[in-house]
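[#protein-structures] MJ: dropping RNF41 ligase here for a structure pass
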Amino acid sequence: MGYDIERFVGYVNEGLLCSICRDVLEDPLQAPCEHAFCTACIHGWLVHHSNCPEDRQVIDVSLLRPLYRYMKNDLNRLQLHCRNREYGCEMVCSLESIDRHERECEYSQIPCSNAGCSVQIERRNLDGHLAVCEYRSRECPNGCGYTILSAEDTQHNCVAELRTELELLRSEMICRVEEAKHEMESRLDSQRRHMVQKESILQNEIEELKSQMSRMMSDVRSLMAAERQHRQELEQAELEKREL
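AK: finished. structure tokens for RNF41 ligase:
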């Protein structure tokens, strides 16, 4: 929906009105046929139609483009009243700056910032309301440190509140201790499995080394036997040589 034309000061060119809602263009888009629309209006229209609402030419969302610059400039220069005029705001400013003004307008109706309070109040009166709001919170004057609402003043009991807080802390501590215990057990179990795995690997390596050592000893014995045989053959050859 566009800006209500009744808010504007002076004449508004027909070309700056939305072809669907007939109010002044808000966040405008333009079709290839040069008819202009509010973004929300034309998107809603194209959900159920596939043509321009003015001349019935076929259009698609992909064909929509921003407003021509000169039209955009004319639109931004229009002067209009703040939407809070009915509450007393007399500000008149350009369409280009109206949103910024209304975000900060002292006559804007804003919700109370206290949780549970449903009051809507003018921004300029917010501080006064917060000072008396029944949902305002403050620290207990007796020094227990508990934050209480004004409506709970008569029911507040420091001892009961502190006891409740203590129970909550105790429960939280027990939960954390249990979590730490489970985490530690999980880590120990993981380390235990890792150690068992490493022990198995080391045992296999030891067995492999023993096997290699056994093969080496067997080879050494074979070499020593061959050397003895060779020495005996040499001695026999030496005797035969002497006899000859």
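MJ: nice. Strands lie at 28-30, 36-38, 65-66, 79-81, 92-94, 109-111, 120-122, 137-139, 147-149.
AK: one more thing. The chain has a mean pLDDT of 87.
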